[in-house]
C-alpha cells in the first residue's frame, strides 16, 4: 500500500484507473457473451420443442425436451453412434498417420544432412499452401481406380504419407530446439539413426506430438469436403456428412433433433479444446495456423 | 518461423590433424553416405505422398484440364476448350464475384477486430487466459457443419436474429434466403472466427519492446500517436502474416456455403463460392476436365494474390532489425 504522504495524491488516480479497468472488463464480458450467445442458445434450444426454437430467443428451455436427443439419434438410416464410430475411426487413423509420417520426415529435415535438402524442404513448405481443391480430382481418379471410394483409406493413407506439411514444419521447429549433445552421445555409443529417432528424439518431442494429435483431431473431426467426396454410401458416413443429409432431409419440424445432433457433433471438439488449450494456444502462437 | 531463419548451418568441425586426414575424410564420406541413405529412408513416406497425393495430382490436374473426362470411359484431349468455356460461363463469373467479395470484405474486418481485441487484452487485463480462450473457441468450431447448421437457423426468416429484432419491433428479412443478404451472413461467420489471428497478434504485441513506449511517454506521445508510430509499424510483419494466411483460407471456404445453401450456392447463386461451383462441376456433373481447369485457375488466383502480397510487403512491412 502507498505511504501516508503519497496516499491523498494517488487516491483519485487509482480510483479512475480502477474504473477504467472495470469498464474494460464489462466491455470484454459483454462482447464475449454476444460472441458465444448463438452457441449457448444452440445448446439450450437442443432441449426445446421445435416450435419454441423459432419463437424463443431466451436461454432457458422452459419445456425441457430431452426427447430431441433420442429422436435425433435414430432419425437417419443408421443410429447416430454408427456415424460417431466412423468419425472416430477416420480421426484415429489420421492421428496415428500424422504422428508416424510427419515425425519421420521431420527427423530427416531437422537432423540429417542429405543431397537436395534445401530444395525438398522448400517443396514441403510449398505444399502447406496447396489447396486440396486443386488436387482433389486426380486424387479421386486414383482412389477410384484402387477401388477405395467408400472406404476410409483415402482419408487416412495420405496422412501416413506425411502430406500434412504443416505438422512436419511444426515438428522440425521443435526438434531443432532440442540439444544435439544427446544424439551425438548416442551416436558415439553406436546408436543408429533409427534408434536415435525412436529412443531420443521421439520421447523428447512429446509436446509437438501432442499439438499434432490435438490439431489433427479437431481438423479431421470438422473436415467436410474430402469426407463428402470420398464417402457416398450411408453406412460409411461420418458425422459431418450424416449431419448434412439430416439438414437436407429435415423440414422445419425436426430442428430440435437436428440441433441435438449438432451439439453431439461439437461436443468432442469442445472437450479437446478444454483439455488441450495450452498446446493449442502455443501451437497457434508459434506457427500461426488456426 | 523466426527460429527457422535464425538458425544457420553448424560450423564445420575443426580440421583433422594432417596425418590422419585422408582416413577421416574417407570415413567421413562413408558416414555422409549412410546419413543420406538414412534420410531418404525417413523421407520415404513423404516422397510417396509427394508423388501420389500432392505434387503428382497437381501435375495430373493440369493435364486433365486439357481433356474432356467424365470418369467413365476414356478421356479425350481437347486443347484449350475448357479454358475457353470459362470465358463465357456466367456461373463461373458470378462464383468469382461472390468469392472476391467474401475474401476482401471478411478478411479485413476479421483482422481489424482481431487486432483491436488483442490490443485491449494486451494492456495487462486480469483473466487474459480466459478471455483468450472464449474468443478463440469460435475459430475451432467455425468450419464445422454443425455451426453452419446453426447459422442457417440463426439467420433464417424465423431465426434467432429476427426473434431478437422482433423484441425491438423490427421485422427482419429471411437473411439466408434473400439474395442480397445471404453472402453477408457468411461474412459474419468468418469475422466471428477472429480468435485465431487475435492469438497471433497477442503473441506479436508481446514482442514490442516496452522501452519504445516508455520513450514515447517521456516525449509526451498520446495513445493514438503511440499506436500509429510504434505498435502498427512493429506489428506489420504479423499483420502481413495473418493477411496472407487468412486470404488463402478464405478463398478455400466451402462447408459454410454448402450447408447454408443446401449445396446449391443459392439463392440466385449469391453464395456460390468458387470451391462450391468446382464441387458441383466435378462431383455433381462429373466434368472432371472442367473442374481441373477451375482448380488451376484457383491455384493461379491464390498464388497470384500471395505473390502480390509478398511484393507489396516490401513497401509497408517493417522488419525491426
UniProtKB/TrEMBL annotation, chain A:
Keywords: Cell membrane, Membrane, Sugar transport, Transmembrane, Transmembrane helix, Transport. Residues 84-276 form the ABC transmembrane type-1 domain. Pfam families: BPD_transp_1. Belongs to the binding-protein-dependent transport system permease family. It is a multi-pass membrane protein. The keyword Transcription regulation does not apply. GO terms for biological process: transmembrane transport. This is Multiple sugar transport system permease protein. It comes from Nocardiopsis flavescens. InterPro entries: MetI-like, MetI-like_sf. The chain crosses the membrane at residues 22-43, 83-107, 119-143, 155-175, 196-221, 255-275. It is found in: Cell membrane. Signal peptide: none annotated. GO terms for cellular component: plasma membrane.
UniProtKB/TrEMBL annotation, chain B:
One of its GO terms (cellular component) is plasma membrane. It comes from the Bacteria. Its main location: membrane. It holds the Pfam family BPD_transp_1. Keywords: Cell membrane, Membrane, Sugar transport, Transmembrane, Transmembrane helix, Transport. It is found in: Cell membrane. The chain crosses the membrane at residues 37-64, 100-121, 133-151, 182-205, 226-248, 293-312. Residues 20-30 have a biased composition (Basic residues). It is a multi-pass membrane protein. InterPro entries: ABC_transporter_permease (IPR051393), MetI-like (IPR000515), MetI-like_sf (IPR035906). SUPFAM superfamilies: MetI-like. PANTHER family: ABC TRANSPORTER PERMEASE PROTEIN (PTHR30193), ABC TRANSPORTER PERMEASE PROTEIN YESP-RELATED (PTHR30193:SF1). Belongs to the binding-protein-dependent transport system permease family. This is Multiple sugar transport system permease protein. It comes from Nocardiopsis flavescens.
